[in-house]
Amino acid sequence: MRKKKRWIFTAAAAAVSAMLLVGTGAAQESGADPSNTDVQEMAQTDGKVSIGLEALSEKTTELLSGEDAQSAGENALPTGEIAPPTGEISPPSGWMGPTVVIDAGHQGPGQDMSGTEPNGPGSSEMKARIVTGTTGRTTGLPEYELNLNVALLLQEELLMRGYQVVMTRETQDVNLSNIDRATIANESGADIMVRIHANGVDDASVSGALCMVPSASNPYVGYMYNECGTLGQCIVDAYCEATGLKNDGLQEVDNMTGINWSQIPVTIIEMGFMTNEGDDLYMADGNNQQTMAAGIADGIDRYFQQ
After folding, report:
1. What digits encode the pLDDT tens for the residues 181-222?
2. Of 258, 257, 285, residue with least CA distance to 271
3. Domain limits for position 61
4. 41-95 pLDDT per residue, tens
5. Considering the domain boundaries, does residue 50 fall inside one?
6. With contact defined as beta carbons under 8 Å apart, do 223 and 296 qualify?
7. What is the chain's mean pLDDT, rounded?
8. Going by fewer Cβ within 10 Å, which terminus of the chain is more open, N or C?
9. How many distinct structural domains can be found in the chain?
10. CB 143 within 8 A of CB 105
11. What is the SS3 assignment for 269-294?
12. Cα(197)–Cα(183) distance, rounded to whole angstroms?
């Protein structure tokens, strides 16, 4: 696994940039229930590339050395005056953070649900290539809408933190099987894949978030057990800390097609139970969805800081 460090736009870098703008000292100077549709995937299973990154303070200092620093000093404004905007910060050529594939689970209605595909490479077990997803029991919000809402917010959050992002979908009008989604990730050169889902069961009292990962004995991706487990644990812990939702930990699964075909560390974040009133109401709130996305991003940060 090719773990890469995040590039952090530190307070020191911000301070250096601020000094440049005001011209002061610039020359001195980042559950197996039928209504659980993700269990349906277990039972019958289930890009635009955007780049964003942040500058290191030491790189900022380096760029201000020599002739650059001298030029900055010559063009500095009198103390107390603020320079006009000069556009977004542009990092040195070649700087790129880790690449994350975000897979917003399911898709909009109207797709052909009749097709099947192998559960894993070389498997004779066939499973549904597309499943429907669950629905908020209280809110009526379809899971496919919730998944995409959070996925798009997560994309924005990761870009701001310096990651490269590959989206398996950015619209509801797609027809992507679980193998299709894994293939997008495998061919992107990405470092990890995070699949965004929500849970559902008959028992309305069941609540909380969890991450699904393969077991060590998984015949297809067992070799990635440690990396997938670390990724899932980092995400579910950070997510629950951010949202306050119950932490149901990790669930090991070996019959998820989208996991079994992955060639990079992968986890499914089940953000909460849409069949639980409290979880459902929380996840349907737009402000909370921003917190949910930030929590997932925090977990991704933790993974790459391991």
Report:
1. 999 999 999 999 999 999 999 999 999 999 999 999 999 999
2. 285
3. 7-30+56-90
4. 444 444 333 333 343 334 333 433 443 433 334 333 333 333 333 333 334 345 4
5. no
6. no
7. 79
8. C
9. 2
10. yes
11. EEEEECCCHHHHHHHHCHHHHHHHHH
12. 18
Structure tokens at 258: 């989208």
Residue 211 in contact with residue 251, Cβ under 8 Å? Answer: yes
Residue type, 99: T
Residue 122, burial from CB neighbour count under 10 angstroms (0-12, 13-18, 19+) = exposed
Give the CATH number of the domain where residue 191 resides: 3.40.630.40
Half-sphere exposure (Cβ direction) of 76: Cα atoms closer than 13 Å:
22
Among 44, 297, 296, 47, CA closest to 180? 47
Same domain membership, residue 141 and residue 244: yes
Helix segments in the chain, DSSP class H: 11-22, 37-44, 57-63, 66-74, 143-160, 178-188, 225-243, 257-260, 277-284, 286-304
